[in-house]
Amino acid sequence: MPHDPPASTVLAGLDTIRGRQEDLYRDLHAHPELSHQEHRTASEVAKRLAESGFELHTGVGGTGVVGVLANGAGPTVLLRADMDALPVEETTGLPYASTVTVDGTPVMHACGHDVHVTCLLGAAELLAGATGQWAGTVIALFQPGEEVSDGARRMVDDGLGDLVPRPDVLLGQHVLPMRAGTVGTNPGPTLAAGDSMRITVYGRGAHGSMPLAAMIVVRLQTVVAREVAPGEAAVLTVGSIRAGTKSNIIPDRAEIQLNIRTYDERTRSDVLEAVRRIVDAECRASRSPRDPDVELFDRYPVTDNDAATTRTVAEAFTAYFGDRAGELGRWTASEDFSDLTGAFDGVPYSYWGFGGVDPDTYDRAARQGRVSQDIPANHSSGFAPVLDPTLDTGTEALVVAALAWLAPHDR
């Protein structure tokens, strides 16, 4: 007797959990927590994983939570969601908008991590409720501190590799300013490496620091054009310059903050070296009284999807989503998801995107060529994924991708 595909059977339970997922999402959105402060979120995650029958590991890397559900012999699949929010004041006007502040700083889920948590908890519940459809082991990993680039590394350093079975594949996803209901995959470099740099330069007397800083900023604009090989991509953004307090006082120091995005380790190294070389040379040319201080922080790896793994995910998505599955392409956003490979050397991974923008709103903006102008992107104060069909799509994607590896149940 023929049987329905496992994904369709497992996901038939969506109707029964949709209301709980929406309530959970609203609650998480209204109660965001900054990086490594995700105590309330982690507690809710642990409670729900336990209710679904997962073996729990809490406090991993600080506030990380890992659930393991073993269901007989078969492959092991790790599914990951991040939990932290951002220091952003929400302007969405939603009835469940965040009013949280930490030491006077507004906090908001401006990057969709509340969506990620909700979807992974939903996928975990559905897989746990349909163990007759698959065999193997599911690891549900909820990571802190993605927004400060060190959450995955902290979990690895805290012994993640010794806590759980070695996975056969690592899978993750991100809600993006795409049409809700769609999913997209991309083999190879997909999200950029991110490097933030803080540079302090020094001046004295009439040779103040601000003219020196201005000359450095102008010169830095040549890096991408002159230092990056044709065919490679890089973005260098000077996001902040701070110097002085009064119009008639010449400051003796200036601070420049910049961010660099690249997709290739050689390009990354070349751009960073070029920045240091230009800063040093301009300081010498201006007879700076001391060497500049250069600090690298918030460093993210390239998300370089394994081609074969991503092909498997893409084929599963096409079979389930039909024409709602497509190509993601490269994004200049950065992620620390791939740092989890530090606990499982050699394990392949794939990371995809799914849409969170109301379809009518997105289509209207697309027709007018105004997607980038009219659609609030991640990290925006107006970022607000629609619940329907975003939560369903994110939950479906995790289940479908996991079942592409998990063995069919021996009937």
Number of domains: 2
Fraction of residues in β-strands: 25-35%
What summary fits the major beta sheet?
9 strands, mixed
Uncertain segments: none
What is the approximate shape?
globular
Radius of gyration: 23 Å
The topology string of helices and strands comes to HHHEEEEEHEHHEEEEHHEEHEEHEEHHHE
* CATH homologous group name of the largest domain: Zn peptidases
Q: Tally of extended strands?
A: 17
- Helicity, as a percent range: 25-40%
Q: Alpha-carbon distance between the termini?
A: 11 Å
- The structural class is alpha+beta
Number of helices: 13
- Which fold does the CATH topology of the largest domain refer to? Aminopeptidase
CATH architecture assignment of the largest domain: 3-Layer(aba) Sandwich
CATH hierarchy, class of the largest domain: Alpha Beta
Mean pLDDT: 95
EC number: 3.5.1.32
Organism: Pseudonocardia parietis
Pfam families: M20_dimer (PF07687), Peptidase_M20 (PF01546)
GO molecular function: hippurate hydrolase activity
What's the arrangement of secondary structure elements?
Layout: H1 6-11, H2 14-30, H3 39-51, E1 55-60, E2 64-71, E3 76-82, E4 101-102, E5 105-106, H4 113-128, E6 134-143, H5 151-157, H6 160-163, E7 169-179, E8 183-185, E9 188-191, E10 193-202, H7 209-220, H8 223-227, E11 234-242, E12 253-262, H9 265-285, E13 293-300, E14 303-305, H10 307-321, E15 325-327, E16 349-357, H11 359-367, H12 371-374, H13 387-403, E17 407-408
Parallel strand pairs: 3-6, 3-7, 7-16, 8-15
Antiparallel strand pairs: 1-2, 2-6, 4-5, 6-17, 8-16, 9-14, 10-12, 10-13, 11-12
Helix pairs in contact: 2-4, 4-13, 7-9
